[in-house]
Amino acid sequence: MIGGLILTGTEPLRVIVRALGPSLPVAGVLANPTLELRDRNGALLAANDDWRSAQENEIVATMLPPPHERESAIVQTLTPANYTAIVRGFGETSGVALVEAYALE
User: For residues 87 and 99, is the Cβ–Cβ distance under 8 A?
Assistant: First the structure.
């Protein structure tokens, strides 16, 4: 799944991007979503698999941690530009997922 983010304005913005799967109340969820955040040129800015594996304290402090430990999240301060969030299933798996982005400031 690919989600686009467009940040406007002149000031950097702190965001959390989440990839949900196991906590969704539907059949056929993506059991272990991974998340990549890329800039407008496709360069990798950050990646996450299982949100507690990296940035756990930052993610918890947002008050928006993913509900399930196998879901992914990235906290990043971004300058105004276009960004892409890519969600994949760990091990080339497939299923239903959701990508979300929240402004933190």
Answer: yes
Domain limits for position 20? 2-103
Tokens 């991007």 -> residue: 17
Which distant-in-sequence residues (6+ apart) come within 8 Å of 24 by Cβ? 96, 97, 98
CATH number at residue 29: 2.60.120
Asked if residue 55 lies in contact with residue 17, where contact means CB atoms within 8 angstroms, the answer is no
Can you spell out the DSSP letters for 30-70?
-SSEEEEEE-TT--EEEEEESGGGSSHHHHHHTT---SSTT
pTM for the complete prediction? 0.95
Q: Which of the four pLDDT bands, split at 50, 70 and 90, describes residue 4?
A: very high
